[in-house]
Input
Amino acid sequence: MARNKLTPSDTIAYQLKITLFGSEPPIWRRVLVAGNISLAKLHAILQPTMGWTNSHLHLFKVGQDQFGEPDPEWSDVGDHHRVRLCDAAPKAGDKFIYIYDMGDDWQHKIEIEEITQTDSSNKIGPVCLAGARACPPEDCGGIGGYAELLETLADPEHEGHKDMVEWIGGDWDPEEF
Output
């Protein structure tokens, strides 16, 4: 991966759009972050921004490269602490994948919408600028399980409706952002 010419002191703002693959209508967030953050820091920002609880493993796929938490069992996975966002995606329009929970396989497309030089006296984000729809509940079975959950919750006559309402906590609204 080619190294971007930015230095850690540069004040480059990245506007990202994060979209959960397979969600219809789309579940997405627009976020402003500093371009010089590591992918590890981006993971820490994505978790609360999307609504996840950081209870599972994650992975970034940038082209043919993969980055995540260092693990001897994942020899083909680079250390996400050592890769900056500005190196993984150096220009507007670049895209890469963030996967959360290897079992449920929540895949997110991260698109660089805009890159802006800012005044060095201004701290850059992270700031969630916009979004749509609630994050799926943890451990609901991936996008297929989520679709089944929504179907069950929408039908009070469904045999699993009462159990799902209880499991989800009763007041969760999939349309709320």
